[in-house]
Specification:
The protein is mainly β. The protein has a single domain, classed as Jelly Rolls. The chain has strands at 5-6, 14-17, 21-30, 35-43, 51-60, 77-87, 91-96, 103-109. A hairpin with a 7-residue loop joins β4 and β5. The protein is globular. The chain starts with a strand and ends with a strand.
């Protein structure tokens, strides 16, 4: 496999690439303790709109007082292998904290 570039760790919405590229993978780590944070990657060079290529919902929980049995299965670290999806317009990352408190995300692309 050919080498790819990385966005490095992003903790807020950001332009990842301003040109046509291949989306290789997304690595996301939940950095909060409770609530949900949504991470999306868009085929857009300047905004979180247009064609959404991937969506990751990270869930945190307080292990001492889960409000739902599924809370014990909190999604804190996720990798998406995107198999080289073509982003025609570039890549834009959105990190929406919603009821959560954040994420650290890297996007790999070629």
């Amino acid at each position: 496999m050919a080498a790819c570039r990385s966005s490095g760790i992003e903790t807020a919405s950001a332009v990842i690439s301003g040109e046509r590229c291949k989306l290789v993978s997304i690595h996301a780590v939940y950095t909060g303790t409770t609530g949900t944070t949504t991470v999306s990657v868009w085929d857009n060079a300047s905004a979180g709109s247009g064609k959404e290529l991937a969506r990751i919902i990270l869930v945190g929980s307080d292990p001492t007082a889960p409000t739902h049995p599924a809370a014990a299965l909190a999604y804190r670290n996720i990798e998406f292998d995107m198999h080289g999806v073509i982003a025609t317009n570039g890549l834009y990352l959105t990190i929406s904290t919603g009821s959560g408190t954040g994420a650290a995300v890297s996007v790999e692309f070629a």
